UniProtKB/TrEMBL annotation:
This is Peptidase M4. One of its GO terms (molecular function) is metalloendopeptidase activity. Residues 248-392 form the Peptidase M4 domain. Belongs to the peptidase M4 family. The active site is at residues 386, 472. Residues 112-150 form the FTP domain. CDD domains: M4_TLP. It comes from Tumebacillus algifaecis.
Amino acid sequence: MKENQISTLSIASALVLSMAALSSVPVSAAQTLPSKAAEMQDFANFSRYENSKKNDKISWNTEKNIPNFVSGRLSSREVRTSTDAISVLEENRDLFQIESARMEMMLFDQITDQHGKAFKFRQTHRGVPVFGNELIVHTNTTGAVTSVNGYYDPLLKTKGVNVKPTLSKADALSVAKKSLKLSETAVFDVQESTLTVYEASPSNYHLAYLVTLSAFDDTPVYADLLIDAHDGSILNTISKLQTASVIGTGIGVLDDTKSLNIESATGLYFMSDLSKPMFAMGGKIETYSTAHSLSLPGTLISSTDNIWTDKSAVDAHFYAGLVYDYYYSVHGRNSFDNKGATIKSSVHYSTNYNNAFWNGTQMVYGDGDGTNYLAFSGALDVVAHELTHAVTAKTAGLIYQDQPGSLNESFSDVFGELIENKPNNNWLIGDSIYTPTIAGDAMRSLANPSLFDQPDHMSNYVYTSADNGGVHTNSGIPNKAFYNFVTAPGITQHKAGKVWYRALTQYLTPKSLFIDARNATRQAAIDLYGASSPEVTAVVNAWESVGVNDSLGDPFEPNNTLETAYEPVISDTTYNGRITSADDVDWFKFTPSTAGSVTVLMNNMAFDYDLAVYDANSNLIGQSTNRGNAPETVMFNGLAGASYYIKVVGYNGAHSATSVYTLKATFPTTTTNKWFYETLQMDTPHPYPVNYNNRYQHTYRKPGAQKVGLHFSRFETEQTYDYVQIRDKNDLTLYTYSGTLAGFWVVVDGDEASAVLHSDGSVTAYGYTIDQVAYYNPSAINTTGMLTEEPRTTFVDPIED
């Protein structure tokens, strides 16, 4: 043990960083970019609002030496319109080194939800958009600014880029087509050419045409090309053909029976779904067949008897509906563009084609070769993966290259698994269609990326020019971060999906890197659940565990004094902190709700850190000062309702800006309610009959429970006409569901819940399967849950019910 290493706390001598002692000097465009010390002086000016100093946080773009994420109060003005948002950027132009926000920033999108607004601005240079550079101003519901994030390039205005093109748009298109070796007979779905300012390499700017082509030739093409608008040289080619080389055990496409939403017209039935809310905006879900050709979209699939035998088409149509349902019901998103766009799918592309892709306007599926792959439309997570690429294109627009491209792939993997929503999720991508004779195969694993040769930590990041910079390889790192988050205590798939969706649609920009995704998901968790919530702790820890962190500081700062201690520390929860300088000290606060044994453990330190615990009067309760990086432990008997303070300090100035220590306090808490799960299955007849006495009931009872839940693993009824009501023990209808829905839970207060099916006199469907039930209680109830299953003969008019 080291002697006298930690002295008794003296609040009066605690070090406090006085931001007011720093001054800020505005930087003009003609000056060189400031040093990091000068940047911190600018940040001191940014922190001028006294009541928000503790919450201000800044993350730096080290390449451009400006902030890329600032959270806190940047303005005292109320922001309701884009003009107000521009005024905020004007107020903070010294911080971002913007000469004139009104001249340089162009509004291109505005999002409003229950948490506030997000104003998205694109940087321009002499009226020409700058490729990938965006700033987003965020407000809460009162109009107060909560953060600004994104990428702005202050160097550009010093480079004198000539924005008058020599090359025409038509010439740029010709150069692009020739570069991609497209034939004269190629069929184009998209061919666009717009001017942009492009940074081909650091500080090397070009006026360029951004050419986007989606074409069908011998092979499909979907790509962005950056072509110099003066000499016609190709600066970059970014393939956006987001394919799914999916892997899995495979049980065959549509060995089960699915009910479909079909359009009937002129004596024929068409594979066109008009039942979704998108139809009010002109959208629908359509499924075509190319009949093994390369011509898209092919022919809309039809039938004379409404019996569908094309397995690939049935899955493509059905799963596209489930993906739509998820985004609409969980996130309020109306199709991939949030404007009710038609979701179009084509099956039987080419012959034995081992892939699937989103081409910029529609989904395309190959049939596979039957040996290595089954038909690609046969996997829900594959369909969801590809359609999420479309959502990403319409929101963050993540450039399909390097880290932004890896994030693009990762978000598709994440939502593919969330939408598939398997019981006991194994977090495997594409495991249902790959290598039918090999069990356990998958394309990727979110839980263990290394199983399929993906890195799960930044220390193993693969630097390569192949695969657009390894977008399908390095996606393992953000995938693992998501897995760590979604499996953290108290985090559900629903919560995790909310955080990741908000980050994707409101915070990420085309050039976002992994650190930006970390900042975005952290801020999204703050927006949704509060700055001191377990969700924020979980998301920070998730990224820390894969080596993605804010290397300039500690996620729990400012916590350098007892008065500013991070709180609340939650029992038995791991916190990843940093001692970032020789004089840095970290403080944490916790309060046991009942008396009993307390253990505070710190380990996984790269350097020699020490641990101490104090009471609210600054009296030392216990300390641990082991040599080297051995674990440190303090144990004592805590008092109910008493506050205790944990102090972490580096011995003899030990510190690291990048290495983390893990801290966990275990202490008595009031017994909390928990969910307990039971595997009890309830099924309607498959398919259910017409006029089934107009009611069919399943009831789950768990006497003594506070709440009960039913999990529907499969739900298919005739849209609108047949429906299922969820009732409580008093026979009060709480929810009504109809149509085809992805797996979902229904929760009812009390110890009883019933599902009641109503069917009319024509058209039936699969019905439903309840595969799991659950109850909510402080402790487990030993009696087994009771099921009743009975047809009900009493007809109740649903209008009056």
